[in-house]
Amino acid sequence: MLAVSLPLRYYFFTARYAYCLVAVAYSVVIIPIIWWLIDSYTTEPIAEVPSYCLVGHNFIPTDHPYFSKFLLIATAASVIMYIPVLLILKITLAKNRVMENTVKYEKLKRATVTLGISSFCTFIFYIVPMIIVNLKLFDNLNIFFLMLNLNAMVNIFIYIARFKEIRVGIKALVTCKFKVPWETVLYNINTNRVHPGLSPNTW
C-alpha cells in the first residue's frame, strides 16, 4: 500500500524500512508460537494433531482450532487488502499523470498486477479449501488438505514468471554462479532508472 500511495518516495526508502516490516511480520508470528510452545509443555498433550516441526508435543484440542482460524483470518485479510491497493493506485495515478510513462511506474504496475494474481491464487488454493476443511462440508477432505499446500508452490512460479530479477537469482542459486548474474541484474536496474516525471528516452 505504501508503494502505490507514495510511488515517488517509495524508491528512496532505506533498508531500515524493509527490516522494520520483516520484524513486525516475525513478531506477529512468534508471539502465538511462544504461547503454543509454553502451553504444549504445561498441558497434558492429547494427540488430536501429530507433532511436527521438531515440537516435542502435539497440539491440544484448544490450540489447533485457534491455529487454523488464525491462519485463515490472516490470509483472508491479505487478500482483502488488495482491494484498497487497487483503489489507491488508481487515485495516485489520477493525481500523477506524468508518471504513466516512467520505468518506475511500469515496475509498480507490474508488481501490483503480480500481487493480484498471487491474491487470486491464494483465494482459490488456500482460503476456499480452508473454509471447506473447517466447516467439514465433505466426508473426504484429503483433496482439500492437498490444495492447502499448492498456494506456496504456485506463488514461486508466479514470481519467477513475472520478474526477471527473481529468474536470474533462481538460476544463480541452481547453477551456484552468484556474481555474474547478480551484476547483470544490478546493471539492468541502474541503466533503466529515470527521474520521476521523465520518460526513459529523455533521461
Automatic annotation (TrEMBL):
InterPro entries: GPCR_Rhodpsn_7TM (IPR017452)
Range of residues in the leader sequence: none
Subcellular location: Membrane
Keyword annotations from UniProtKB, A to Z: Membrane, Transmembrane, Transmembrane helix
UniProt cross-references to SUPFAM superfamilies, sorted A to Z: Family A G protein-coupled receptor-like (SSF81321)
Top-level lineage group: Eukaryota
GO cellular component, one term: membrane
Transmembrane regions listed in the UniProt entry: 17-38, 70-93, 113-135, 141-161
Protein name: G-protein coupled receptors family 1 profile domain-containing protein
